[in-house]
C-alpha cells in the first residue's frame, strides 16, 4: 500500500521534519515571516490530521503508523488481520513516550522486506526515515552502520534546494540527519541489554542498578511480566511478542538468497554478453548445475533477483524455459515473444541444447 498522498507531499518539506522530530525552535524559525495558511483550528498540517500509514511487511503482517503532526503524537502498531485488532508496539509524544520498539538491525530488516513488496518504498528511503524513532541502540549494536542508512534515507527525500544557501534575512535551511536519532535513541552505556526467553521472544532489560544515561521506555518487556501467562503462553493486552517474532522470522526468510541463486545471477550477464564458443558452453554448464539446485525461488528476494537476470525484454530461449523461476517475483518482467535471433539467451541456449542432444546421441 503506497504512502498517503498528503504525507508523500510533505516528505520534502523541512517544516514537516522539524515538527516530526519535536524541533519546535526550528519550526518557529522556518515559519517566521511567512504567511502560513492555517485552518480554522489553527493547524499547520491539517492534511495530516489522523493520518495512517499501512505498510505490508509479510503476507500476514503490516505495520501501522498513525501520525498527528500538529499534536505531536505518533503511534506504531502491528496488524495481523482485522484492523480493529491492531496491537500497539509503541508510541512517541512529549508527555508519556514509549518509543523503544526495535533494534536497529530489526528495523532495517523490516524496511528491506517492505521494499521488496512495494517499489514505492525503496530502502534506504521514506519508511526508515519515518520509523527510525521506534528503533533504539544498546551495547553491541552497529550504530554507525544504521546511522549511515538513516542519512541515506533522509538524503533520498531531500529536495534539491534544501542544501542551498538561504537568502539574506531568511532562516537557515534545515534538513534532518541521523544526529537527531543518535542523540535521543542511543542507549549504549546505559545498562540496557537484550534478553531472549525460551520461546524466542526478545525484549530489552535494564540493569538492576540503572546507569547514567538515557532511560528505557518500552512496551516490549518480559512477556510474563506484562500480559502473557507463564502457564499457557497466551498473550493478553501487553506487547504482541508472538506477532513480532513471527514477522521478523518471515522477513528474514523473504530476504534470504541461497548461494546457488547468487551464483546463477553472477553468471547470467557473462553468458548473455558472450559469443558462441567453448567458453559459453562452460558457463552454461555451470548455470545448468545452478538451475538444478534452485528449481524455484523460495523467497521473495530470490524471485526479485532472478527477475533482474532477464530484464524487461522478451524472456524466450533460456528465459522462457525458466519463466516459472520468476513467476513468484512481486513484479515479474513482461513476457513477449521476440524474433528467434533477437535475444542472445535464445540463440546461446538453443545451441547448447543442440550440443547436448548430439552428445546424448553419440553416447
Topology:
Elements: H1 5-10, H2 14-20, H3 24-31, E1 51-56, E2 62-68, E3 73-79, E4 87-92, H4 104-117, H5 126-131, H6 143-157, H7 178-185, E5 192-196, E6 202-206, H8 241-255, H9 259-273, H10 278-294, H11 300-310, H12 318-321, H13 323-326, H14 344-362
Antiparallel strand pairs: 1-2, 2-3, 3-4, 5-6
Task: Tell me what you see in this structure.
With 363 residues, the chain is of the alpha+beta class. Helices cover 41% and strands 10% of the residues. It has 2 domains: 5-252, no CATH class; 259-362, no CATH class. The chain has helices at residues 5-10, 14-20, 24-31, 104-117, 126-131, 143-157, 178-185, 241-255, 259-273, 278-294, 300-310, 318-321, 323-326, 344-362; strands spanning 51-56, 62-68, 73-79, 87-92, 192-196, 202-206. A hairpin with a 5-residue loop joins β1 (51-56) and β2. The longest helix is centred in the C-terminal third of the chain and has 19 residues, at 344-362.
Protein traits:
363 residues, alpha+beta, 4-stranded antiparallel beta sheet, two-stranded antiparallel sheet, 14 helices, globular
Quick summary of this structure?
The chain is an alpha+beta fold. 41% of the residues lie in helices and 10% in strands. The chain has 14 helices and six strands.
Q: Helix count?
A: 14
Question: Would you report the number of β strands?
Answer: 6
* SS-derived structural category: alpha+beta
Q: Indicate the proportion of strand residues.
A: 5-15%
Largest beta-sheet characterization? 4 strands, antiparallel
Give the C-alpha Rg: 26 Å
Residue stretches low in confidence (pLDDT < 50, at least 5 long) are 227-235, 311-349
Shape: globular
Can you write the helix and strand succession as a string? HHHEEEEHHHHEEHHHHHHH
Region (Disordered): 160-180
